[in-house]
Amino acid sequence: QVQLVESGGGLVQAGGSLRLSCAASGRTFSSYAMGWFRQAPGKERDFVAAISWSGRNTYYADSVKGRFTISRDSAKSTVFLQMNSLKPEDTAVYYCAADPSGLGSDRYNFGSWGQGTQVTVSS
Fold first, then answer.
1. Other Cβ atoms closer than 10 A to 117
2. What value, to the nearest 5°, has the Cα angle with vertex 95 and ends 92 and 70?
3. Distance of alpha carbon 7 from alpha carbon 42, whole angstroms
4. I want to staple 114 with a disulfide (CB 3.0 to 4.6 A). Which of 4, 12, 29, 86 is the partner?
5. Is 1 a residue whose pLDDT tops 90?
């Protein structure tokens, strides 16, 4: 099993950028697909982005396409979420998760959730 710790959240003005990081422990990181999800107050946790174990395949929610980029550095066991052109509706707690299938294409395969990092976008 993999343990995940997110960082990089904060307060930013609309139009600004943030880069989230998720550090993983465990020797199996390179075989996992990784994903980012978010949960706004009073709402369900939603899929944001995912990347396959190889990094060759990426997936995005329609609401973040063209603004967010997911990437991974398997040598450092870390996955990143670069968030540009942030909007107030991006405000949420962002969670990192792992998919042991390695594919990342099915959001219901994700587990091993981190503790989350708060992102707040002011208008």
1. 22
2. 100
3. 22
4. 4
5. no
